[in-house]
Amino acid sequence: MRRRTAAGPVIAIAYLIAASPAGASDLESLLRAPFPSQLVSAAQGKRLAWIANERGVRNVWTAAPPRFVPWQITSGTADDGQELTALSISRDGSTLVWVRGGHPDETGVSQNPQSLPGGIEQEIWIATAEGPPRVLAKGDSPVLSPNGRVVIMNQGHSLSCVSATAIPAPDWCTSPLLKLRGNNGRPVFSPDGRRLAFVSDRRDHSFVGVLDTETRDVTWLAPDVSRDDFPAWSPDGKQIAFLRIAGAAYGETLDITGAWPFEIWIADVTTGTGKRLFRSNDTAGGFAQMDNEGPSREPLRWTSANDLLFYSEQSGWIHLYAMSPAGGQPRDLTPGICEVESDALAPDARTLIVSSNCAAIDGRQLFRVSVADGKPERLPGGTIDVEPVFLGSQAYAFRGADAVHPTSIVVARASGEHISIYPTMPAGFPAHMLVKPEIVTFQAPDGLTIHGQLFRSTPGGAGGRRAGLLFVHGGPVRQMLPGWHYMDYYSNSYAMNQYLASRGFVVLSVNYRSGTGYGQDFRRAKDQGPRGASEYQDVLAAREYLGRLPTVDPARIGIYGGSYGGLLAAQALARNSDLFAAGVDFHGVHDWAQKARESSGAGWGIDPSLYERAYQSSPVAAADRWRSPVLFIHGDDDRSVPFSQTTDLVVRLRDRGVPVDTLIFPDEEHGFLRYASWLRAYDATAAFLIRALGSAGGMH
Q1: Cβ distance 486 to 386 under 8 Å?
Q2: Distance of CA 210 to the CA centre of its chain
Q3: What angle do CA 156, 161, 163 make, to 5 degrees?
Q4: Phi-psi region of 329 (alpha: psi -120 to 50; beta: other; left: phi over 0)
Q5: pTM of the predicted model, to two decimals?
Q6: Per the CB 3.0–4.6 Å rule, which of 8, 92, 247, 386 could disulfide with 205?
Q7: pLDDT, tens digit, for every residue of 421-471?
């Protein structure tokens, strides 16, 4: 693997931060910290790799033992808005593959936030010891074979195979490799690399199949009318375990708040004969299986020690379970009133490191857990430690952050020493000026306890009360934390909350019901979203809490948020302009019923019988009561919330004479792909809120 440029020396402290100049900091200084993600490791810790985003410039980095000095593999220099995703590494650490560019839409067009006239195509890239990084093929979701010689990828609805090295690919490796009915994906090699399991999605049902690369035969595993997914090979390669949920009935649409009882099946890969091993309870939920935006996790795996590990909400909380493939009852490896979000399995498959909120529900902590008895051992770390990966049997790495130090890659040696290897923070980053958010709780009108983080700094020379702001996150299945978030979207949100506090605002970030981190009952709260907007009462409770603070002027309280947070910001301004003096709405949903008509239930299972209730649960239903000024920010290539949701509401409000500002990004996505877009959006947000609400003091 060719190494491009060296980073600085390894440091044995949390960060190397240059002293910031005296005085107030600007927004750009808070957003300039590189954001590392997608941490992966080769077998036995031979190499680490990750993606880094530094002010919109995305690159692949790697580090090898014993010193784990970071090296930049790619040579990106532009804020081009092209994501790097799906990073994976070969077992020996010699090969890296990843995807550049977003997934094409239904017309075949990929995201192009720079509006390049020639367009953009999604590409799979590879880096090996044979030369510089290069384009391997067009496609998505690359999977390396066990020997690292070939790569399987998605190309449209088919699977294809290409050689990963200068050695010619075996005869079976062709493009297309599998051109069957349905949408075929999620390929998984058998331990010996001879067979390939895959999932064939047929809309209302799906099959798990096995391709024998020698005979070119496909065997379907216990085919049924169900939806089968997440195939996992047995250590000897003779069987496959997979998850099964019921097939779709006429008119059924995705509902993220629904319970998705599931079964674990095991099938013989030669005959296809299968049997049910386990069935969850009826309220197990499906969030752990369907959430693919947070930290990466495997919903089901078959370990080399012959255990099945799987995630489930059957206790009412997302926990990790183990059970024998011979049958019996599963063992809860992570019991407690807490949730597990990601994990790493040791090379001997007898020990796990899990990231959970079991020690502090508003953070993330690492625990070492025995697969045999579930005995946990709290590992040292910070406020927000996620996505552990093993480096051999004892050493490990993870992504860590706290209130003042953004996310870094940390290596924990077997000796117990922790070394932050990336990044070295840029000069001028104002870590010493940041506030430590206070964790607060308050009661909603129905008695539910709501958590939040309160940002307030001492105003320099400013007396009297200050303007207040509510921040509402998106998702809604997300949880804001008292530190730099592990997801880039919310890392930016945290930076913005810090910046607004530095401008004199008192900011309250609200973890409203329907979010994650507080159990299934909280996530699946009754009458939420299009069925009654029950979460809005949490916004009102947060506003009341903020308005009672002696340092806050209750007449100058605003609200801002993105996506689902944009919906709630619009909800607040529509229903209660008497309580919210101004707001900023980033790409929010404004009409549940219209979204359901356009996108098959809007992901919330909204059928025609619910359209009226969905409309009444939307901001547009109260648009005639909207008086407060608002700034709408939206990219018009949004593939999560249709741009028309903003077009429609802006037209309505302008017709009524409501003060409306807009900041529109042609060809930008939902979560802005360019740093320049984030900076413009946040600059505009701060300027608008200062103009509408006023502020007091600055960062001192």
Answers
A1: yes
A2: 30
A3: 140
A4: beta
A5: 0.94
A6: 247
A7: 999 988 888 888 899 999 999 999 999 999 999 999 865 434 579 999 999
